[in-house]
TrEMBL record:
<feature type="domain" description="2Fe-2S ferredoxin-type">
    <location>
        <begin position="3"/>
        <end position="97"/>
    </location>
</feature>
<keyword id="KW-0274">FAD</keyword>
<keyword id="KW-0285">Flavoprotein</keyword>
<dbReference type="InterPro" id="IPR036010">
    <property type="entry name" value="2Fe-2S_ferredoxin-like_sf"/>
</dbReference>
<dbReference type="Pfam" id="PF00111">
    <property type="entry name" value="Fer2"/>
</dbReference>
<dbReference type="InterPro" id="IPR012675">
    <property type="entry name" value="Beta-grasp_dom_sf"/>
</dbReference>
<dbReference type="InterPro" id="IPR001041">
    <property type="entry name" value="2Fe-2S_ferredoxin-type"/>
</dbReference>
<protein>
    <submittedName>
        <fullName>2Fe-2S iron-sulfur cluster-binding protein</fullName>
    </submittedName>
</protein>
Length: 118
């Protein structure tokens, strides 16, 4: 059985078979989720955020994943490499900190230019 996964904030989607990891689905959808360990739960770089509804459509976090994530579990974080898709789901890929800083600077510069024009 296939399920659709949607990645926020890009809105990109992929249709994958049940049991596919979110990391593999992201690669299929062309969504970049950082990884250094190749999905072996060694790098903790593949964090995604899921709300309560989405969590019901993903496999449960194993004790080992919960241990690795610590208090982030309560904030809705999962590891994309360990989260298996069990239904139609939407997940959020947190923005890279460097990209977020650049985006904020560009937005501030754009706002300054707009203010100068008025
Ligand atoms: S890809 Fe390294 S922990 Fe998930």
């Amino acid at each position: 059985m296939n399920h659709e996964i949607t990645f926020k904030p890009s809105g990109k989607k992929a249709t994958v078979s049940r049991g596919t990891s979110v990391l593999a689905a992201a690669q299929r959808a062309g969504v970049y989720i950082p990884t250094r360990c190749g999905g072996k739960m060694g790098c903790l770089m593949c964090k995604i955020q899921v709300d309560e509804t989405a969590a019901k459509h993903l496999s449960h976090a194993a004790a080992s994943e919960q241990r690795k994530l610590g208090s982030l579990v309560e904030q809705g974080y999962r590891l994309a490499c360990q989260s298996k898709i069990e239904g139609a789901v939407t997940v959020t890929v947190p923005e890279d900190k460097l990209k977020a800083a650049i985006r904020r600077q560009l937005e501030a510069a754009r706002q300054e230019r707009e203010d100068e024009l008025w």
